[in-house]
Amino acid sequence: MIKQYQDYLLFERRLSKATVTAYRKDINQYLFFLEYQIGLNGPLFANRVHVRSWIASLVDDGLDHRSVNRKLSALKGFYNFLLESGDISNNPADGIPSLKEKKRLVRALTKKEMVALLKPESFADDRCGRRDRFIIFTLYAFGLRRSELLGLKMTSLDLSTGTLRVLGKRNKERELPSLPEWRSLFEIHCLDWPEVEFRDTLFISEKGNSLSPRSLYSIVHSYIKASSTIEFKSPHILRHTFATHLLDMGADLSSIRELLGHVNLSATQIYTHASIEQLMSVYKKSHPRGE
User: Fold this and answer.
1) What are the tens digits of pLDDT across the range 206-239?
2) Among 97, 165, 205, 277, which is least packed by CB within 10 angstroms?
3) Could you confirm whether 169 is annotated as catalytic?
4) From CA 164, how far away is CA 159, in angstroms rounded?
5) How far apart are CA 140 and CA 240, in angstroms?
6) pLDDT score of 267 more than 80
7) pLDDT reading at 193 higher than 80
């Protein structure tokens, strides 16, 4: 049942492997709750009360509303799949409202912080250190998602046009212009790691394995932690910083949307609010009457 739904998400809805993995974890968590907390042997016997009980248990465990809503969305999709397959006659998650989320503006790294983060002397003078700096520069230079960076190959760069081909959500490909500095680091990386020519990924570990999402997070987190006091230190914060800096430099939202690979402009507009919030903070600190 779970396997069929996973295949449906991958091959029919064409969702990314990372998204499908997250959905599968959410559904398995729900099934575990049904079996060990409710005593039900599978999702086919659950009703609306059981779904609401699961949501309540997530909130009681201290999970933030945004994460709870993501899990509820995953469950609704799973039950809709069972409904269309004829396994159930109604969706027990249908009509259960999402929880109200607190508006949370995430601060981007400042330009000064990015300069400090990318200083060559902050990295070991070996191929792993140069790889780590190249990873961080790549995330910031293109505003990539974690899965997009891990999906890059040596052949992703078109040498004739200087553009980088990126495979985004729902397997949508986009071409991004590359900076001369990035192309120089790309060449150094390929010399440091000649084995990537025969691999399906541009970034690998010292042992020759493809970098995992967890390894990537650990690399980025450790360097940001050493150079900034910013609250969030994940690879996504570099994507957030990329968009915020472009907006601060006068780029229009439509162009930023194309570069980020957003389907809707509304997904990009969050950076407008973040940029204004940062501007207001500077204004209040700097203006003589701001105290």
Assistant:
1) 999 999 999 999 999 999 999 888 888 999 999 9
2) 97
3) yes
4) 9
5) 9
6) no
7) yes
Q: Note if 183 is an active site residue.
A: no
Inter-CA distances, 198 with 104, 162, 193, 194, 203, Å: 43, 21, 10, 8, 12
Q: Which of 50, 107, 145, 245 is catalytic?
A: 145
Q: Hey, what are 252's tokens? A: 């229009």
DSSP annotation string for 208-260: SPBPPHHHHHHHHHHHHHHH---S--SHHHHHHHHHHHHHHTT--HHHHHHHH
CA–CA distance, 263 with 41 (Å, rounded to integer): 39
| 74 within some domain | yes
* Catalytic entry in 50, 133, 240, 262: 262
**Is 170 one of the catalytic residues?**
no
Contact 154, 197 (CB under 8 A): yes
Tell me if residue 271 is catalytic.
yes
What are the tens digits of pLDDT across the range 26-77?
A: 999 999 999 999 999 889 999 999 999 999 999 999 898 989 999 999 999 9
Active-site residue, from 153, 169, 199, 221: 169
DSSP class of 85: T
* CATH for 32: 1.10.150
End-to-end CA distance of the chain: 60
The first and second tokens of residue 146, run together, are: 């974690």
Q: CA of 212: how far to CAs of 149, 192, 201, 219, in Å?
A: 11, 20, 11, 11
Average pLDDT on 2-16 reads 90
- 130 among known catalytic residues: no
Domain match, 159 and 21 both = no
What is the model's pTM?
Answer: 0.66
Domain count, the chain: 2
